[in-house]
Amino acid sequence: NIKALIFDLDGVIVFTDKFHYQAWKKVSDKMGIYFDETINNRLRGVSRAESLEIILEKYNGELSDQEKAEMMEEKNIIYRELLETMTADDVTDDVRDTLKKLREGGYKLAIGSSSKNAVFILEKVDLLDAFDGISDGNNITHSKPDPEVFLKAADFIREAAENCLVVEDACAGIDAAKAAGMTAVGIGDASDYGKTDIQISSFKELPDVINRLLAQA
Ligand code: BG6
Ligand code: MG
């Protein structure tokens, strides 16, 4: 029985993917590393350090840990400057209203994000109070597709994994949700991924999706 929903943040609640792209693009251009939207898609759901490793596949040479750390730092500074421009208007009514409706319906809501900037983003868009628990890049040692971020989220809201439904836009996130023993709903990019249990094209469909699952149970 679904009693809680765990939402990925980037690409699900907010569209920060474009900022991740712009920030990594600046850093890679500076280093003369080829980087495009297709490569950017592979960065969905994975940590900052793993993102850098994917980008460096196009780099001919060796970088020290110190140099890698500097690149990640630089990317994050540019990314945070872009995040600074975000306001409550960067969350669609669809998302805001659906979250409200789900909460009124008695469901617990959590965030399960690989990002270390999750709380900062939620503050900027005025959604920090919309969630009962936040599991993010600061409380995990393994990022998606490892289930840790979602298992921690379930822990934070004191819910059994099997009662949790995860909403994700990344294949790595769908894998993580399945590895956690949760129901995986795909939106956007992950919606045609084979391991996704249920696909939605809009947030509004979520209450119906849950009702259908409850009727089947
Ligand atoms: C995920 C994004 O939510 O967070 C990834 O989908 C990103 O693309 C990861 O690399 C880490 O984000 P941050 O904010 O900690 O650099
Ligand atoms: Mg995402």
From TrEMBL:
List, alphabetically, the SUPFAM superfamilies matched.
HAD-like (SSF56784)
Tell me a GO biological process for this protein: carbohydrate metabolic process
The record's family statement is: Belongs to the HAD-like hydrolase superfamily. CbbY/CbbZ/Gph/YieH family.
Query: Which species is this UniProt entry from?
Result: Anaerobium acetethylicum
Question: Which molecular function GO terms apply here?
Answer: beta-phosphoglucomutase activity; magnesium ion binding
Cofactor(s) listed? Mg(2+)
What is the designated name of this protein?
A: Beta-phosphoglucomutase
Enzyme Commission number? 5.4.2.6
